[in-house]
Amino acid sequence: xxxxxxxxxxxxxxxxxxxxxxxxxxxxxxxxxxxxxxxxxxxxxxxxxxxxxxxxxxxxxxxxxxxxxxxxxxxxxxxxxxxxxxxxxxxxxxxxxxxxxxxxxxxxxxxxxxxxxxxxxxxxxxxxxxxxxxxxxxxxxxxxxxxxxxxxxxxxxxxxxxxxxxxxxxxxxxxxxxxxxxxxxxxxxxxxxxxxxxxxxxxxxxxxxxxxxxxxxxxxxxxxxxxxxxxxxxxxxxxxxxxxxxxxxxxxxxxxxxxxxxxxxxxxxxxxxxxxxxxxxxxxxxxxxxxxxxxxxxxxxxxxxxxxxxxxxxxxxxxxxxxxxxxxxxxxxxxxxxxxxxxxxxxxxxxxxxxxxxxxxxxxxxxxxxxxxxxxxxxxxxxxxxxxxxxxxxxxxxxxxxxxxxxxxxxxxxxxxxxxxxxxxxxxxxxxxxxxxxxxxxxxxxxxxxxxxxxxxxxxx
Length: 461
Hints:
Blueprint: H1 8-16, H2 22-40, E1 43-46, H3 48-63, E2 75-79, E3 88-89, E4 98-99, H4 105-112, E5 116-121, E6 133-134, E7 138-139, H5 155-162, E8 168-172, H6 179-185, E9 188-191, E10 212-216, H7 219-229, E11 257-262, H8 271-286, E12 290-295, H9 307-317, H10 330-341, H11 344-365, E13 370-374, E14 387-390, E15 393-396, H12 397-402, H13 406-411, E16 415-419, E17 429-433, H14 439-452
Parallel strand pairs: 2-5, 2-8, 11-12, 11-13
Antiparallel strand pairs: 1-5, 3-4, 6-7, 8-10, 9-10, 9-16, 13-17, 14-15, 16-17
Helix pairs in contact: 2-3, 7-14, 9-10, 9-11
C-alpha cells in the first residue's frame, strides 16, 4: 500500500521502476484530500478530472516504453494565488475570479517535468496575512489540532503536505508566507532569493518582496523541485539572469560556519521553541559546525517594516480599493486602509532602510555561511483569537509569526524553515538564512541535518 507521508521522491522512484502507476499516486492523494476537506479545509478547488487525465497520459507513455519525466509521480497542492490555465484563480477573495489563459511559469515547469497539480489550496485573503483564516472560504485548519491556525498565507499548501494530501505544496512568500505555515505545520518551507523563481502568473501582493517556492515533507523533495522551478523568465520584470545550481546531496557540513544574529534572536520566543533552538545549535556544534554569535542592532525588525511594503500593496489593490471595499473582509479592508494612508515619504524611507539592511546582512555573510534563528516566536494560534502567548505574555499573532521571517524578504535573501526532531505538536522549527543565490547550499545543509537526525518530518498525531 502506498504511504501518503512518504517523500515524493519515493513515489517518483516507484514510478520509474514501474512498481506503481502515476494514477495510483494521484488517486490516493485525491481521495485523501476529499476525505479531509471538511475537517481541514485545505483546498479551495480540487481538479480530479484533469489530474487523472494527466496521470493516465503519463502512464500510457510509460507503458509504451518511454522513460519517465524527472518528476513523474509527484503531486502538487497549488496555492490559489497562482494561475493554472483554464481554471479560476480566487486569491481567497469574494470577487477575484481570473480564469487563467496561461499557467504560471513556475508551475508550467513542474508540469513539463511530470508533476501533476491536484488542486488549489486555501490561503489568507489576497495573501495579506499570516493565519489563513479566510472570511469567504472558511478557516484552513492545522492537522496537528484543527482548532488552531496552520499559519499563512500559504496555509492550505502546508496543510496538504503535513496531512499527507499531496506530495509537495507550492506557495508564495512576501513576509514569511511559506516559512510560517511550514513552521506551524511541521514541514520544510523554502523561500528563494527574490527574482530566483519567476512570478509570471502569480497575483502580486508586494512585487519587490514576493517569491514563489515549495513546501515539502523532506529537504530532499524541496531540492528536487527547486532547480526545476528556478531560472530566468523574460516575461517577469523581477526575474534575474543568474545560473541555477542544483544541490549536491552529498555535500555535507564540512567547514560550515553558522551565525547567530543578536539582538534579533533575543526577541521574546515561546520557551519550548527557544530551548529547541538552543539545543539545535548545540547539535550543530556537535557535528563540527562552527557557531559564531554576532551583535548588530540594525538587523532586527523595526517599526518601518510595513512602510517598505505598504506602498506596493496600495498600488496592487488601488484598482479595487476603496471602490469595492465592501467586497473585502473587514480585516483586509482595515489593513488596506492603512496601506492607502501610508505617506510617500514613509515608503521612500522604508525602501532606504531595506538598502541599509542589505548592507548589514552582506557584512554578516562575509563572516559566516548561513544565519540561524527560530522560524517563529510561537507556533500555536487558536482560530478566531488574534493573540498568542509568547514567553508568558499575550502577543499579536502577526508579530509572533513574522518576527524572524519578514526581515528576510526585505533583505531579499533565501531562507529555509526546517522541522526539528523534537517533541511538540507541532514540532519546533529552525530557520536558516543564506546570502543571495545560496539556495543550493541551504538545501545541502538541510539534507545533511536531515541525515544526522537534527531535522525531520513526522506526521501529525
